[in-house]
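COURSE: Structural Biology Practicum
ASSIGNMENT: Worksheet 4, Part C
STUDENT ID: 0417
INSTRUCTIONS: Below are two proteins. For each, the amino acid sequence is given first, followed by its structure token string. Answer the questions at the end about the second protein only.

PROTEIN I
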Amino acid sequence: MDQMKNTVGKARAAFNSRKACSLEFRKQQLQALRRLLTENEDRIADALHKDLNKNKLDTQVFEIMGLEGEIALLLEKLTEWAAPRPVERNLLTLMDEVYIQPEPLGVVLIIGAWNYPFLISLQPLLGAIAAGNAVVLKPSEVSENSAALIKELIPKYLDKDLYQVVCGGVAETTELLKEKFDHIMYTGNSTVGKIVMEAAAKHLTPVTLELGGKSPCYIDKNVDIDTVCRRIAWGKFTNCGQTCIAPDYILCDKSIHEKVIERLKETIKEFYGEDPKKSPDYCRIISTHHFKRILSLLEGSKVAYGGQYDEASCYIAPTILTDVSPTSKVMKEEIFGPLLPILTVNNVDEAIQFINQRDKPLALYAFCHDKKVLKKIVAETSSGGVTANDTMIHFTISTLPFGGVGNSGMGAYHGKFSFDTFSHHRACLIKSLKMETVNKVRYPPGSPEKVKWIKRLITKQVNFGKLGLVFIGLLGALLAVLMKVLLLH
């Protein structure tokens, strides 16, 4: 479509104007995004309620607060992160300037997801803006009310040329992916992730993929089951289970299996009442398509609690599944809904083996009092992130990278990791035209003596710290005299 070509071309022309190179300009855009959130909180909450039945408190906690925190961090740290970073030199570059300079990549494509439409679309946008890029933002068409609001608000608050919003479905995304970008970030499932990566490969465009997966949750037998079940139920049933790092299934010791089921039942009632359908705190499945997909996963599993549903309102009750086989349908794909299968294991080693036989998940959870056991789980498994004795909280820590590994994704963002993801870290060496005596050692004709000196000059790393330029100058002059004397003989 010519529209996509024009959109990307407009963003690239704006990037080439270099106005986003100014740190002050970037900060102004970040501040404008903060105003977007504060001035439109009610409209954002309304859109999310229409899309997911999300209430205003959940909108504040799960969508807006994280973005406001990220903006505050970027405004505080941007000058520091964007500054040249001096690195250690070797003796050959003793008198030279050697540093890493973060620079913008160019035009970035961000493809958002529907489950947290504002958070997942705007958080990477913040990092891309901070790094000085132009952005084409494609919010998910599945959360149509949120997507429409994003498209309306972004040009009202941000630079209209640098930051473009494209709405639409598969056809529009397919056309967008034909264009050349300097980085693509996609959040969603692995099937589409492969399509994005294939399209990016045609232009040698790097990608960040946040893909999810089946995040396991191990419960040791020696735990406070009441506390554990509250934390698991919160992580699982928030947003009706439509969270990429929600606990996907439980692995628990056989001896506590029945207690876990009973306490989970009580916790669900505590959180959402006897009829969760009436609870203002319980969301809905995003669409009829996903509603039917989730219900189909019940096949072959025993419902221990819940299981009620209403297609007209896309409601599926918080549901606990038991007598689940590792080969059952619900264990073959990411659930992304309010079904919680419980499987039993004999010990932690069996749990680790079970986890390692499957694709690496985006998150891994383990509940145990013994830190040695927890460290063992961390050491002997692999996942995008891991949280012990809680669920999902690692996502809130801006100093931790958020991203997957293997089938759950590649690359990471949040905080400085976002800035780094959307930056090219340029290696810079500014040499002096002086000290040519020292440099002559690398010129022909060669000799064994020159090779010895080259080895000393290149392999010896020098970090002067606070010794200062005076000492460096004296050392450089001494080295030059020494080299001159040696080369004359």
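PROTEIN II
(use this one for the questions)
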Amino acid sequence: EGFLGTADPIARIPRGVSMQLLAVATVIAVAATGVKARLLPYNCHSSMFLGSVVHPSRKGIALDDDTAVNCSGQMLESWPHTSMRYLPAERMKSLRVFRAWAPEWPEAKRAHAWQELVSYVKTNNVQVLVGATITCFPEEDKQSWEWTKALIRLIGREHLIGLSIGNELELVHMFREWFKADDACLKRLWDGNYTLNWFREVVKDFDTMGYGDVPIMSIFGGFALTGNTSTFLDIPVARVDPFLSAVYSEYKNRLVFGFNLYPYFDPNLKLDNHTDDQCKGTLSNALCWKPECNLPKQIAVARQKITNLTGNPNHRFWLTEVGWSTKYTSSLKSRMKKCKQFSTPESALTFYKGFLSWNMSISEPSEPLVPPERAFWFTMRDSPQLGYLEHFGLVEKCNDAYCKSVKDVGALVVPDAPPGYVPEDSQYSHRHP
């Protein structure tokens, strides 16, 4: 799973030399402007094996901002830690692109970044969920959509699996400074129907491009699942349920429901009894992928609410983000910030190992619920989110030849939920509580 696409060649190269080789390859890639095929694949090196990928065609990875802007020629072509000496790593099959470009990103980098991204998609036959924004600033949204249209044309219809319009809009009122959102903005987004109207306008334009049969969505986080037991969030500053009801009523089965769900950010996780810095029980439940564990239960709640809204227990639904941080990040606001073992490479890679082997089930056979069609891991590299530097990447930064790893791979055991463990309340996690 090394730089040259197999485990062995780079394993025999000293670390310092391998980094030099990676730098040379990056220069070659930049010099190859205009070449459609990628000259050398990029895959971070690992001596760990965490298992094969279950349902690889249904699992993909999210593209972080750092990779998108600064090293799109180093996008992961295979899942890290899935190769052994005679077993090649599982190839990436799908990719989530949050936005084609952003106003704060250097315009001078856009053409080359897109060229590398498109080359990656075409060379590896990757399917792409591409996004456009909904913000407080209509002119920025228009520019975002123009960039997205341009990127869609470059990617090609055969690689497009969906269009997302807006991401985690229910959090705008919590991060007013970051989103530059005042009261007037929030009123315009929801009561003024800007969110719904811009969604419709983008879809109409998308359809005129000839993509009228491509799935569409607006993606929300776990906070959108709160409120009551049967419907999505509906408060004056985040009218998620009325919005989803309106777009479903208009677009029916073309609409895919998408949710970003993170046990890592669950605000209701509690420390172990009689401790102020231990979280063994909570961590076991949060890292677990069985139906009775934290994340599958959140997904089950989303599925039930989708069914309530649509009347269809099989309506399309994607898990559009899930991941775990290898270091403490200041965006973690729950009591878990006091627990040192919560934000570690060991915990993150255990959760990742569980993701790789997850059979996508979210319920017991006796009470079956239809699982999400797709799931996207967040993300390739560490990258800032809403003003916080987070550490969710499988690789730390651009130009790193090595995947994040641990010394004792045997310690990465995906747990069952501890007997009798009941989370405090039955709540839902969103990226930034």
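ANSWER KEY EXCERPT:
Q1: The longest strand covers residues 160-167.
Q2: Confidence is low (pLDDT under 50) at residues 1-35, 423-428.
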